[in-house]
Structure formats: structure tokens, C-alpha cells
Design brief:
The protein is of the alpha/beta class. 47% of the residues lie in helices and 14% in strands. The strands form 3 sheets. The protein has a 5-stranded parallel β-sheet with strand order 2-1-3-6-7, with helices on both faces. Strands 9-8-10-11-12 form a 5-stranded parallel β-sheet, sandwiched between helices. The termini are far apart.
Length: 387
């Protein structure tokens, strides 16, 4: 039986193109041009994957995504989001609300077909769709302040089947990396307002990014800059003045090296159960993504007040702990020592963070829920024993 796709996009051209590509790959397709049409189709039929545009005539795709995640029948239905690559906030919003993946427009049809095959595999026993390792997704981020170069690089990289993420600033790139793993980063080390080596150091400190390939882009050879970049483990360098095909070849090389390293790590002999391993197993990028939640300090207990705040943030479990941790520390509050009293100091920072990922109305609703939690805990702490 064919896997069935629900394609929701207001562009007749995109719908027709998607139908042609996916039908040729053996999928059954149903096309919808609006949220209303999609809701009707979902009420009448079962689907194996939803391909959902972020912006529709009668609302945002994330509205439908939230409805799917709340309903038991569709809570594990894979959703692949579509939108323009420049829409950083939209991409973050879709991922934080439970999208399985995100593809920027213009998209590579071969990549969409591959992700459709991967996302419609037989689910695990708990109903969660099985995803391939991040190393096979071939997701490349281009961080550059010049729009002409970003688009030239993106067009060249799509020829190799990569999903390309565009970021015009280090800040946008960092927010995207916290929400979505990548396989390779192309970074202009000389961007105005960005200390390239320091930015790379910050990226390397993020969970799951230690082994991401980083290619530094420069306008010419600067020995001091290259030395600083090497110190923070920039893997390769490429001049922006060279033919764009040179950059394309450099990315292919770095991704191949990365894949070979992971294969070697996977082939290392495992120690017998209960014994100490002879060789420490290197952590692959895929394994690091799985364990992306920040480690708790010694003595921290699960179910702490901080964990309750995280649960009420409305963010995806993938990014909620690290995002709330950053918000607390920005306010000078240690997350695992968070109390109803210290939460008052952290609320402005938490509000700022939520406004990055959620619309204003939803962010305010979440803030109120967190404030109510603080009041409830405060009352519980003040209540006399035995009352």
C-alpha cells in the first residue's frame, strides 16, 4: 500500500510540483490550499506524512501543527514544514512546535523525496517515527552578511542534494543551531559585527555541535585570523573570491571526512557487558544530538522547580531546557537553584526568549502560566505543616 501524503500549500505551482515528484516516487498525494481544506481532509482520511507550508491564506501552518500534536490520533504524525529560507523566526517556530523537519524554499525535490521515505518508515513501538542519523540529512548552514553570496552558495550546494539553511547574522545562526542540528557550517570569518573565531568557539560549546564541519570563508589570506580559527577547530578554509564550485567541492570533502569518521567510530569493537571499554568510544554527532539536554549539576533532582518552568514554556523538549537555562543565567539565576522568588528576576529574560520562538499572544500566555506556577509554589512553601 502506498504511503499517503497530505500537501498543504497555497501555491498551485508548489502543489503540482510536489504531486509530480512524490507520485513518481511511489507516494499517494492529497492536495490542499488552505488550513480549512487540510482540516477537512484530515477528518476524512488517514495520512502518513503532512507537508505543510508556514504561511497560508487563512492562517499559519503552525496552527494546524499544534492541533495535530494535541490530538491523540495525530500526535505522532510526521510533519515536514516548508517556508522561505530567510524566515528564521518561522523556521524556529515550526521546529519548537513539534515539526519533524523543515525544508526551505526553493527546495530540492530529491531531498524532499528522501525525507518523505525516511519519515514514513514503520514507527517504533511507542509510535515515534524513526529518523535517520543527522549525518545522512546533509544539512548545510551558510552564514554570510551578503545576500548575493548566500544565494549563490545555496544554489551551488543544492546541486549536491543538500538542504541549505541561510542565516544573515551570527545571532540568527546561533538560534537556528539551538533548534536544529546541521552537518556543515559555512561561515564568513570577516563578517562585520562578528568575531568569527569567538563565534565558532560558542558553537562548539553547544550540545551536539562539537563535530560539525566548519568551513571558514575569507576574502584573502590573513595569517592571524587563520591561526585564531584553527585554534577553535575550524576544519577548512575557502576564499570567497574563488569559483563557487571550489566551495561546493570543499563542502563535499568535509562531509565525506565526517561520514568516514563516524563509520570508523561505529566499527570500533564494543567491550563485553559489565567491563570497561578498551578504547573510549567517540561521541558522534548523531549521538550528541540525542543527548542534547544539558547535564544537571550534581545534587540536582528531577522534577525540580526549574523542570516545571521548562514544562510550561510551550517550547519543544529539544530546545526548552537549554533555552530556559540561558534565560535564567542571563538574569543571574542558576537554573537548578531556581525558586519562586528568584523566578521574578528571571521572568523578563524568559519573556524575551519566548518571544523569539512564539508569537506575542502565545508567549504572554506561557508567561502567565509560569507566573501562576510561581504563586502556587510560593503558597505551598508558606503553608504551615499539617494544614
Amino acid at each position: 500500500m502506498k504511503a499517503r501524503m497530505l500537501i498543504v500549500d497555497d501555491s498551485a505551482t508548489v502543489r503540482a510540483d510536489m504531486r509530480g515528484v512524490l507520485s513518481a516516487a511511489g507516494f499517494g498525494t492529497t492536495l490542499c490550499e488552505s488550513l480549512a481544506a487540510a482540516r477537512k481532509a484530515l477528518s476524512e482520511s488517514e495520512f502518513d506524512l503532512v507537508i505543510l507550508d508556514m504561511v497560508l491564506p487563512d492562517g499559519e501552518g503552525v496552527e494546524l501543527l499544534e492541533e495535530l500534536r494535541r490530538a491523540p490520533r495525530t500526535s505522532h504524525l510526521p510533519v515536514l514544514m516548508l517556508s522561505t529560507e530567510a524566515a528564521v523566526v518561522q523556521r524556529l517556530k515550526g521546529l519548537s512546535h513539534g515539526a519533524n523537519d523543515y525544508v526551505g524554499k526553493p527546495y530540492d525535490p530529491a531531498y524532499v523525496v528522501r525525507r518523505a521515505h525516511e519519515l514514513t518508515q514503520v514507527p517504533e513501538q511507542d509510535g515515534t517515527p524513526r529518523l535517520v542519523s543527522a549525518g545522512r540529512r546533509r544539512r548545510v548552514m551558510v552564514v554570510d552578511g551578503r545576500i548575493d553570496f548566500r544565494h549563490r552558495a545555496a544554489d551551488a550546494l543544492r546541486k549536491d542534494g543538500h538542504d541549505v539553511i541561510i542565516a544573515e547574522s551570527g545571532e540568527d545562526a546561533m538560534r537556528l543551531l539551538e533548534a536544529q542540528p546541521v552537518d556543515c557550517i559555512l561561515l564568513d570569518l570577516e563578517m562585520p559585527g562578528l568575531e568569527g573565531p569567538e563565534w565558532v568557539r560558542a558553537v562548539r560549546a553547544l550540545p551536539g555541535t562539537a563535530l560539525v564541519a566548519v568551513v571558514g570563508l575569507t576574502a584573502g589570506f590573513d595569517a592571524k585570523l587563520v591561526s585564531e580559527a584553527l585554534a577553535v577547530k575550524v576544519d577548512a578554509f575557502c576564499s570567497k573570491t574563488e569559483d563557487i564550485e571550489v566551495l561546493r567541492a570543499q563542502v563535499r570533502t568535509e562531509l565525506r571526512r565526517r561520514a568516514e569518521s563516524e563509520q570508523q567510530a561505529a566499527s570500533l569493537p564494543r567491550a563485553p557487558s559489565g567491563s570497561h571499554p578498551v578504547v573510549p568510544a567517540p561521541v558522534t554527532h548523531a549521538a550528541a544530538v540525542v543527548s542534547a539536554a544539558p547535564a544537571q549539576p550534581a545534587g540536582a533532582l528531577p522534577g525540580s522547580f526549574f523542570d516545571a518552568v521548562v514544562a510550561r514554556s510551550g517550547l519543544s523538549p529539544v530546545i526548552a531546557p537549554s533555552t530556559m537555562t540561558r534565560a535564567c543565567r542571563k538574569a543571574g539565576v542558576e537554573p537548578q537553584l531556581l525558586t519562586p522568588t528568584s523566578l521574578a528576576r528571571a521572568l523578563p529574560s524568559i519573556r524575551d526568549m519566548l518571544n523569539i520562538f512564539l508569537d506575542a499572544q502565545e508567549a504572554e500566555r506561557r508567561i502567565q502560566a509560569i507566573q501562576a506556577l510561581a504563586k502556587g509554589n510560593s503558597g505551598a512553601q508558606a503553608r504551615p505543616r499539617g494544614s
